[in-house]
């Protein structure tokens, strides 16, 4: 049964506009038939007179139905504005009387006889005057039966349908609100879980960071070079723990982080590598997203350095106005050159995604082999370093 209603709802949604047109066409047809029957059995005059009364009833019924059902009721009834609603209903009733009175008076000379139904009604409304619908019960009933009884039936059915539709819409909106609230609570719960997991994960890095400081204090007198390596490793960890969580960091700090990384790699590969980092003085005036540049440097060592083969890594960072030009050049190893494989892989893909999110339409990145070296060039428009306010 539920599947049947789901299919019915899907079909009705897909064909809602044609269905609406068909519904209105049926309403017009029913109104015309009822108007014709009312004129034929009520007036019983010449065919032309009956046709004129039929047109009067049908057109006025459609007019009142659309004005009241699609304007007055939505604006004043469903929003509960009783004064305006009553005013509109009174004006509509009066306008209906004036229109019916005018038509019957104008048609009276063409009636079958002076004693016909149309002639009697014409004399009655002419004697009652323009306000007869408010001063005579008989005139008021005639006016309602002639021009408003069908409108009343149609408006009752439409109002009931509108109320049910609004109620269903309110139920759906409330259901959507509850689902959004439930999803929000679930996200908040997930966020709290992630925060707890993050705090748990911080225990190990903090322990390792403190241990490195202890090792540095013990070996600094015995082996200064080893102590400096430990110190640089501690600085890398400090940057990852305390600085990299910010949205932006000073470009100079980011380059210092890269320099510490280079020194560790230099010590690890010793005589097999030459490492150079060149940066102009203007880098200290700008800020950048943290850990954005180091992937290029890590790739240079991962794909460009092999034990037993002399290699080099050259890094330059220069400012052209507010645009950083960051270049990483490294040796292109023979096996990489022979296979034609591209360096970078997932790391470069992730960096591009970060650049698209953080610097949309503000960067240009080129990567690829140039003769016997692999070159990465990033041009990135940066913001000036924020000056702290006192």
From TrEMBL:
Pfam families: His_kinase. One of its GO terms (cellular component) is membrane. InterPro entries: Bact_2-comp_sensor_kinase (IPR050640), HATPase_C_sf (IPR036890), Sig_transdc_His_kin_internal (IPR010559). Residues 195-270 form the Signal transduction histidine kinase internal region domain. GO terms for molecular function: phosphorelay sensor kinase activity. The chain crosses the membrane at residues 21-39, 51-73, 85-104, 139-157. Keywords: Membrane, Transmembrane, Transmembrane helix. PANTHER family: SENSOR HISTIDINE KINASE YPDA. This is Signal transduction histidine kinase internal region domain-containing protein.
């Amino acid at each position: 049964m539920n599947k049947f209603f789901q299919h019915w709802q899907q079909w009705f949604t897909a064909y809602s506009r044609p269905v609406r047109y068909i519904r209105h066409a049926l309403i017009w047809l029913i109104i015309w038939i009822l108007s014709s029957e009312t004129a034929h059995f009520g007036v019983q005059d010449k065919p032309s007179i009956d046709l004129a009364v039929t047109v009067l009833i049908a057109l006025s019924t459609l007019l009142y139905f659309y004005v009241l059902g699609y304007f007055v009721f939505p604006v004043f009834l469903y929003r509960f504005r009783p004064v305006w609603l009553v005013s509109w209903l009174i004006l509509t009733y009066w306008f209906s009387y004036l229109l019916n009175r005018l038509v019957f008076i104008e048609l009276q000379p063409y009636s079958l006889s002076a004693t016909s139904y149309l002639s009697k009604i014409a004399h009655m409304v002419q004697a009652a005057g323009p306000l007869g619908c408010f001063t005579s019960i008989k005139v008021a009933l005639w006016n309602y039966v002639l021009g408003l009884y069908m409108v009343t039936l149609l408006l009752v059915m439409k109002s009931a349908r509108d109320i049910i539709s609004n109620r269903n819409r309110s139920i759906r909106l409330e259901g959507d609100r509850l689902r959004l609230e439930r999803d929000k609570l679930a996200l908040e719960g997930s966020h709290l879980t992630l925060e707890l997991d993050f705090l748990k994960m911080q225990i190990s890095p903090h322990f390792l960071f403190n241990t490195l400081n202890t090792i540095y204090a013990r070996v600094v007198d015995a082996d200064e070079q080893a102590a400096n390596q430990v110190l640089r490793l501690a600085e890398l960890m400090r940057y990852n723990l305390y600085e990299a969580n910010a949205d932006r960091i000073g470009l100079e700090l980011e380059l210092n982080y890269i320099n510490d990384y280079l020194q560790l790699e230099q010590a690890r590969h010793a005589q097999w590598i030459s490492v150079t980092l060149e940066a102009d003085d203007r880098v200290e005036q700008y800020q950048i997203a943290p850990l954005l540049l180091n992937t290029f440097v890590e790739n240079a060592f991962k794909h460009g350095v092999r034990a037993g083969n002399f290699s080099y890594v050259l890094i330059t960072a220069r400012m052209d106005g507010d645009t950083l030009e960051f270049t990483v050049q490294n040796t292109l190893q023979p096996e990489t050159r022979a296979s034609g494989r591209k360096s970078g892989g997932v790391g470069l893909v992730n960096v591009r995604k970060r650049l698209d999110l953080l610097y949309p339409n503000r960067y240009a990145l080129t990567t690829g082999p140039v003769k016997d070296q692999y070159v990465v060039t990033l041009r990135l428009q940066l913001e000036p370093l924020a000056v702290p306010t006192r």
